[in-house]
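Blinded run. Sample ID left blank on purpose so nobody reads anything into the name before looking at the predicted structure. Input follows.
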Amino acid sequence: MISSYLRLMLVEISMIVVRFLIALFAKIDRRLYTKFIERLCFAGNSNSDIKDFVTLLIRPKKYFRRDTPSVSAEDMSAAILIQGQIVQDGQFTIETIRLYRKIFPRIPLFVATWDTESAEDLRVIASLGANIILCKKPSGTGFLNFNLQLETAVKGLEAVRKLGVATVLKTRSDQRIYNRFSIVFLQAMLLQFPTRNNVSCKGRIFILSTTTLTNFPLHVCDMLQYGFIDDICKFWGVPAHEEEIDRERFVSEMVGKLHVSEMLTRESSIPEVCLGRFYASLLYGEESLSDPKYVYQRLINEALGIVDQGQLDLSWPKYNSIEAFRDYQVPWILERLTFDKWLSLYSGTVKNVISYDPKTII
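Blinded prediction complete.
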């Protein structure tokens, strides 16, 4: 019987060997590198002792020269906002901007980031035609650093609003969209699925299913939104957090100990819940939060829309190197509210999409 320690050592050694071979093949020949990765996947898929199938998806790190702009997107009254710290690894943020300039050449691009970023990076970004909004880091970072995201999002949206465009795609600096039809697709969604709340919002806000959860009410994606600029500004009108809890402390002190109901009622909560709760109370009143399942179902039925990561060909290398996981591979509470579930709820073909157990442990 192999001890647990020895097994971990063997796994670590194998990972070192794999990393070495990947680095070697990547320098020798791109086709050889991709073939090596493909054979690793094939070996895993053909081995009956391995529990999961693996699908390979390779995206270029740098500008992909065969991409051409989507012509109809050129005439849209839209803007793209990239907010957050400039990602240095592989010049990810700069290469993202370079790609957007090619596939969305006439759509205004805004980058809201920190005033501490390097002058050279800012010079390159400006040379690519992006509008730069420099922000000062707030003294209090908030629950899971929410105040940092809030600062760059709000300042960036304020700048976009002054431009006078009708719609905005708010993204983050650590994510990249490859689909050149993504904005016209989102615009089509906005037109085809108008809001059912004609008083408080102009249209739906479309968000990613990636962190929008089915069985965790009001847990909506904080990373990407598309909609009318007025609605997106309302969505991000949430007050800053006074309580400060970083991710390490959250994991050590709270994960596995808090009920969902506690997370929904905390004054400072995780960013996704904070935004969902705020927008629901804005549209339906504070008293509506007393029934989380009902107000969540109403929110996504009337005022929000869902798109999947794959529909935008969105890459998120920070966390999603293995991104094609499905709901059967995650705990019940982390089941995503995907486009198919949202459309079923919207059309009324399925009534019981959302489940809510307040005593579920996070």
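Unblinding after everyone has recorded impressions. Strands lie at 78-83, 109-114, 131-135, 167-172, 176-177, 205-208, 225-228, 304-307, 314-315.
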